[in-house]
Write a structure and sequence with these properties.
Layout (H helix, E strand, L loop, with lengths): L3 H14 L7 H11 L6 H13 L7 H22 L3 E2 L2 E2 L1 H4 L2 H19 L4 H28 L7 H26 L4 H28 L2 H4 L5 H4 L5 H9 L2 H12 L5 H15 L1 H21 L5 H14 L5
Helix pairs in contact: 1-3, 1-4, 2-6, 3-4, 3-8, 3-16, 4-6, 7-8, 8-9, 9-15, 12-15, 13-14, 15-16
Length: 324
């Protein structure tokens, strides 16, 4: 049985050895560049782990695993353009290093290359795998658009938010796991249970991200703490705070959301204090734990080796116990 670090090394080696055409250089060099920036490789690792649940011969799942990572980075490349982000993992984003047109076209080629690699599955499951991949890709785009729509909406509810992160984040984990399971020879029931495991894990993961954005240690979290508050981003915490706030808390929350060019640290401190008074962190953690429990319950339903299932369980728990 492979460890998580061994699978990450396997994926990184495959990515590093991937050769793209030399010309036109502006089209292909950005692909190698963004893929070299690293990351946890969480989605391809989950695909390989799902395959390993049912078949120890996981190399047949390596090309689809890299396809998943290519698609993920394609979305990041385009997200960075939409967000006008200067940095990605501490390095220049593609559109900053080259330009937006290069990033758009290069990202488009990444999507094509992802499909090429995903199609390298057994013909017997090709149609089903491609359907899952298509549904996953569509869901991610729908989630991103919904997230952008939220920026101009004031009546976003918790259920709306959960559906958005299900599409934007969670279906990608579920799809990766289901594809890996099918490559490994899983039956439909087990493959669907793995999808449910990934989907619920993805929602829990994003809820934890919301919590850490406010309450995390910036050195351990790896991001600017309070960034969501500064940007008025509609996270679970802000949506729940608007739902519960009354009187002075409601007035103060509305003030900070509508304030023009407030001092960032002062705004973060003030909004965090409102969250503390309303018990928002505890409510967010309860919501996160509910989805985590759903994920682990789905994992338990799968008919597979106990040690291999436990390795997935440990991986899930490590994802949800990041430093704060």
């Amino acid at each position: 049985m492979y460890s998580i670090s061994q699978l990450q090394d396997l994926i990184n080696k495959q990515i590093a050895e991937k050769q793209y055409p030399v010309q036109p250089n502006e089209l292909y060099e950005p692909i190698s560049y963004i893929m070299s920036l690293g990351g946890k490789r969480m989605r391809p690792v989950l695909l390989l782990k799902a395959c390993e649940l049912f078949d120890d011969h996981i190399l047949k799942a390596l090309d689809p695993a890299v396809a998943i990572e290519l698609f993920h980075n394609f979305t990041l490349m385009h997200d960075d353009i939409m967000d006008n982000a200067p940095l990605r993992r501490g390095k220049q984003t593609v559109h900053s290093k080259w330009n937006e047109n290069v990033a758009i076209l290069s990202g488009d080629v990444m999507l094509v290359k992802a499909y090429e690699l995903m199609m390298r599955v057994d013909d017997g499951i090709l149609r089903q795998v491609m359907q899952i991949f298509n549904e996953t890709a569509t869901g991610v785009c729908e989630g991103q658009q919904t997230d952008m729509n939220f920026e101009s909406m004031m009546d976003v509810g918790v259920a709306d938010y959960i559906e958005m992160i299900r599409l934007k984040t969670a279906v990608f984990l579920g799809g990766s796991l289901k594809i890996g399971a099918l490559i490994g020879g899983a039956g439909q029931e087990d493959a669907s249970a793995l999808y449910a495991f990934g989907e619920n894990l993805g929602i829990a993961f994003q809820l934890q991200d919301d919590i850490l954005d406010v309450y995390g240690d910036p050195e351990k979290f790896g991001k600017l703490v309070g960034g969501d508050i500064i940007a008025n981003k509609k996270t679970f915490l802000l949506i729940k705070a608007f739902e519960l706030a009354e009187n002075i808390d409601e007035e103060e929350l509305n003030y900070w959301i509508s304030a023009e060019n407030p001092e960032p640290a002062t705004k973060v401190k003030a909004v965090t204090e409102i969250y503390n008074r309303l018990g928002i962190r505890q409510l967010a953690e309860e919501e996160m734990n509910e989805f985590a429990e759903k994920a682990l319950s789905a994992l338990e339903r799968i008919d597979a080796d106990g040690d291999k299932k436990n390795a997935l369980r440990v991986f899930a728990e490590e994802l949800l116990v990041r430093e704060n």
